[in-house]
Amino acid sequence: MNKKTFGSRLVSAPYLVWAAIFVIVPLVIMIYFALTNDAGNFTLSNISGIGKYKKAFLYSIVYAIISTVITLILAYPMAYFMTKIKISAQRMILLIVMVPMWMNFLIRTYSWITILANKGIINSFLEKLGLPTVHLINTPGAVILGMVYDFIPYMILPIYSVMSKIDNSLLEAASDLGSNGFSKLKSVILPLSLPGVVSGITMVFVPSVSTFYISQKLGGNKTLLIGDAIEYLFNAGPEYYNVASSLSLVLMILILLCLAVMNKFSNDEGDIIV
Amino acid sequence: MANNNIVELKDVFVSFDGEMVLDGLNLQIEDKEFITLLGPSGCGKTTTLRLIAGFLDPDSGTILFEGNDLNGVPAYKRQVNTIFQRYALFPHLNVFENIAFGMRIKKLPENEIKEKVTDLLKLVNLSGFEKRRISTLSGGQQQRIAIARAIANRPKVLLLDEPLAALDLKLRKDMQKELRNMQKQLGITFVFVTHDQEEALTMSDRVVVMDEGKIQQVGTPKDIYNEPKNAFVADFIGESNILDGVMLKDYLVEFSGNKFNCLDKGFNDREAVDVVVRPEDVDIVSLDNGMLKGTVISVDFLGVHYEIIVDIGGFKWMIQTTDEHFVGDNVGLIIEPDAIHIMKKSKYSGLYGDYSSYSEEMDHISENIEEE
Questions:
Q1: Residue B317 CB burial class (10 angstroms; 0-12, 13-18, ≥19)
Q2: 10 Å Cβ neighbour count for A16?
Q3: H helices within B78-213, ranges in order?
Q4: What pLDDT, on a 0 to 100 scale, did the predictor assign at position B2?
Q5: Contact A175 B93 (CB under 8 A)
Q6: Inter-chain touch B84–A191, beta carbons under 8 Å
Q7: How far is A94 from chain B (nearest CA, A)?
Q8: CB contact under 8 A, B105 and A191
Q9: pTM
Q10: Based on CB atoms within 10 Å of each CB, which residue in A104, A110, A123, B169 is the most buried?
């Protein structure tokens, strides 16, 4: 071993130790629990028994897809707009986008309860205006709203950061060659910002599909998402650890599959464009 | 059209953040000419190009294209195309699609696009490169693709923003010739921006020398070199010894304590003037036969010739000669009447043309080039 590689290994050692303790070991423990029964013997019954949670998986994926799409639709024009304004204004908006991320996730979710509740802010306001009240809390819409609200910074930031790095001379070249507004967006800005879109989708879809709590507080426990199911089972006691672990394992594999499909899609997209 | 001007800039003013970039620019660009905007960084040459391209609007003044006001006409509607300094090729498209970009917007039929791309690639000597990714091309190849893409739309004017600045010397020389040939072959107007005076002289029909947002001189390369209008032009184009002189009468000038016959006239009697003598126009002779007498203080061998600095009464002359001389030699100089060029005094007088701080000046020039 030469000195250089020894040195570089030394530098990465703290992270490797950290990763081993907090990533590898928990993963191994999870896989162990998923593939054993409460007596510690190997079994596949946990995995084969997850059919009961089929609906929860399905809801989680559908909710995640819907909220990711809505987030993308909202975030993309926002990111584009941000690159078009003065630098000082860009910084201001970035700050506004990021401020909610500094507050606790539970507090943010609770605040939506007070906004959406039947006697909440919106309905009190409607009452004052003499309008009929609307039922908002404990609906799928409220869950989606909570997810979009929570995860939208993770969509805006990567798209904005890729978009703001697009060389202005490329946009000038597009104009120069006869392309205006929409065709410039379609043939230059969109393909060049695609890496930001892909990482934004990843960063929103993954936490969306495994989210819990939002559905409990804003969805009124009507629809059980897989994240909630896992939480319930772990809270229910050590005898449920094996089932909960197997659900986590399957969820993880599903997420990896989704990401692989999406990466394939974005690569294909790249090839089609080329 | 009464005149042959394809582009005309009239009293154009541009300022950025209160700083004047173009200060009342007037310029006529003739159809099918190769015109070069030449000047140091910050002189306004690129700004002028961007005005014609439509990336920038003037604060005041008009820009005419074939006699029509371009004011408010967006870049994508103008019949000009640009070759950008760093090429600005689309990294997500291959060579074919880069060149086809403009034609796709015009919605030309696929077979026509294909035919044209093939022709253009042939024109720039890159046949067979259709499927290549931009990132796999060398600087010179990217340059050629940028040219092909820009002329694919058959522009009437091609704007070139220091397109050769990033290429190495050998390639740059080749591309200069190729661009010149291409311009003749295509029969379209080229507006070329550069800070390299040699490039400007070799390539252009006409050169526009700019400084501080103003045009200093417009003319053929020969005019600019032989008849510079002021000390800035004389110094920026080639090497010049620029001396304070007094015009005694027509055809007679006094400088460095001597009277010289010259070919210039039309000045007031005893008018103070700037005298330009090019280093290659001075003959070194023996001390006794010289009109001026001095001491050699430095000799550099440059291959084709020697560059010699001679001190004459405190003023350092640069002389280029193929004869070898040595530091410390006392020599005489002879200056023929046709080697002397007289200029009116300007705000640039006294700033340039003395080689006593030669090395510092060279440092300054090379810094400028790096900034570009």
A1: buried
A2: 11
A3: 95-105, 110-123, 139-151, 169-186, 197-203
A4: 53
A5: no
A6: no
A7: 26
A8: no
A9: 0.81
A10: A123
For residue B228, the 8-state DSSP code is -
**B149 interaction partners in chain A (CB closer than 8 Å):** 177
Asked whether the beta carbons of B148 and B127 are under 8 A apart, the reply is no
- Locate A133 and state its tokens: 């009240």
Predicted local confidence at residue B361, as pLDDT = 47
Q: In what order do the strands lie in the sheet with B292-301?
A: B282-285, B330-335, B292-301, B306-312, B315-321
Residue A17 lies in a domain: no
- Contact assignment for A176 to B86 by CB distance below 8 Å: no
Closest among B17, B30, B20, B82 to B51, alpha carbons compared: B82
State whether A175 and B90 contact (CB < 8 Å). Answer: no
Distance CA B146, CA B182 (A): 14
For residue range B176-202, list pLDDT tens digits in order.
Answer: 999 999 999 999 999 999 999 999 999
Q: Is residue A179 part of a domain?
A: yes
Task: Measure the CA angle with vertex A194, ends B134 and A169; round to 5°.
Answer: 50
* DSSP string over A67-125: HHHHHHHHHHHHHHHHHTS-HHHHHHHHHHHHGGGGS-HHHHHHHHHHHHSTTSHHHHH
Q: Which two tokens stand for residue B77?
A: 């509607």
Report the C-alpha gap between B357 and A253 in whole angstroms. Answer: 73
Number of domains in chain A: 1
What is the spatial distance between Cα B262 and Cα B266, in angstroms, rounded to a whole number? 12
Instruction: Give the closest residue to A238 by CA, choosing from A33, A44, A25.
Output: A33
- Tokens 């204004």 identify what position? A89
Name the interface residues of B facing A (CB cutoff 8 Å): 53-55, 74-77, 80-82, 84-86, 88-94, 97, 101-102, 104-106, 133, 149-150, 153
Tell me, yes or no, whether A221 lies in a domain: yes
Give me the CATH number covering residue A235: 1.10.3720.10
**β-strand partners of B301:** B306
Per the DSSP assignment, residues forming a β-bridge with B69 are B64
Q: What is the pLDDT of residue A215?
A: 86
Instruction: Please list the pLDDT of chain A residue by residue as tens digits (274 residues).
Output: 455 677 788 888 888 899 889 999 999 999 999 999 888 888 888 888 888 888 899 999 999 999 999 999 999 999 999 998 999 999 999 999 999 888 888 888 889 999 998 888 898 999 888 888 888 888 889 999 999 999 999 999 999 999 999 999 999 999 999 988 888 889 999 999 998 999 999 899 999 998 888 888 888 877 888 998 899 888 988 888 898 999 999 999 988 888 888 777 666 544 433 2
Residue A273 and residue B92: Cβ atoms within 8 Å?
yes
B107: enclosing H helix or E strand? none
Q: With a CB-CB cutoff of 8 Å, which residues 129-158 of chain A face chain B? A: none
Residue that the structure tokens 């015109």 belong to: B35
In a domain, A230, yes or no: yes
Q: Which residues of chain B have pLDDT under 50?
A: 1, 359-372
| Residue A210 structural domain | 53-266
State the burial class of residue A39 (Cβ atoms within 10 Å of its Cβ: 0-12, 13-18, 19+): exposed
B338 vs B336: CA distance, rounded Å: 6
Find, in chain B, the residue whose alpha carbon is nearest to that of A193: B92
